[in-house]
Amino acid sequence: MRAIDIIRTKRDGQPLSPEAIQAFVSAAANGGWEDYQLTALLMAVWLRGMNPDETARFTKCMAESGKSYRWDDIPGPKVDKHSTGGVGDKTSLILAPLAACCGLVVPMMSGRGLGHSGGTLDKLEAIPGFRVGLSEDELRTALRTVGVGMIGQSAEVAPADRKLYMLRDATSTVESIPLITASILSKKLAEGIDSLVMDVKVGLGGFMKTLPDARALAKSIVSVGNANGVRTEAMITRMDAPLGRMVGNALEVQECIDALRGEAPVDITDLSVALAARMVEMGNKTDPAKALADVQKALKSGAGLEKFRKIIEQQGGDPRVIDDPKRLPQAPHRHILTANRPGVVHGLEAFNIGIAATMLGAGRAKAADHVDHAVGVRVLATVGSTVREGDGILEVHYSDPAKLKTALPLLEKAINIGDGNVTPENLVVEEIKP
Ligand code: URA
After folding, report:
1. Which class would CATH give 3-49?
2. Ligand 1 centre from 64 Cα, in Å?
């Protein structure tokens, strides 16, 4: 099939045939079309959309464009959680050990920080020695012995997505529900999982800023995941302020250890427990109350913390960070932003805090940038706190004074102090089932 005919079909708002979709995905993975033809079709999809059947077929072809893992030889339900990304979103490191304690096998393939949002791989690499580049054999051993393997996407997995994501990033075609659905799920289908819980973030610090957009993405992911044989459910969760109190790689690992000790803020702990419980409910086919009780037991007994220690050890990291978090990278300097008036913290804008953390070195502006695992931001006064003038609101952990200077205006802008009480809203906004 000729590229020009396929592009014209979508340009004119017609659905693409399965053969046309296969031709497009093969060209993205193996060459055969010029980049301008691939991007013309991406733009046509961005403008015209895809129907659910097209999106499901597109996702399947993308997943099959590369390697797929199979774990049939390992007993237990294979379940993962994936988030559309946020600021301070560290739930993976808390829920994976808890889910494994409840009998699940969690083959988790994650990404690096993107734009203002952090990435699980960068957080894990803050742990001295931790390796995210496991071979398939090493991953199999980790899943068999510990129940969790946390890895990055290798070049062999969904190569069509790798190519198309790069083109989307450069041509303003990222924010499209069929394209996002296929991109996320192609990698999840390749993981060899039976069930998936999607955490779709909504709000100022999320990919989707409004509830209707988040709902549309969640419904698309749930429908396409199930159409491709992976039981998929979604939770739409709020991302207006950072989750927990820590933003930045080593700081977030420290908060995960605190959470597994039962000593972290309630928002991050409750969300991680809720997501883990949903994984357990789907994987073990139990009722919601039993799934929640099992996860809470794993947390309260300390089993989750011990499992995290084993995961770190299994992947070459220094397990002593569990008892001595000072072994995590520490930034040499601190700067405190204080309240410029008395009042109540009405908002801590996640997007600006996320960008500021990236500017400090916690994330990358370009793929090749070096990440400084030690830097970040600690929230001293959460949304809803009453403060006096001069009270500390954000504590910046930094290495380079020049980077602090560029990040400070964004952090100042992120703080919103007003009059009158605010009650922090429930993080879980809605649940989407097939
Ligand atoms: N994450 C992905 O992997 N792909 C997208 O398109 C968006 C977020």
Report:
1. mainly alpha
2. 17
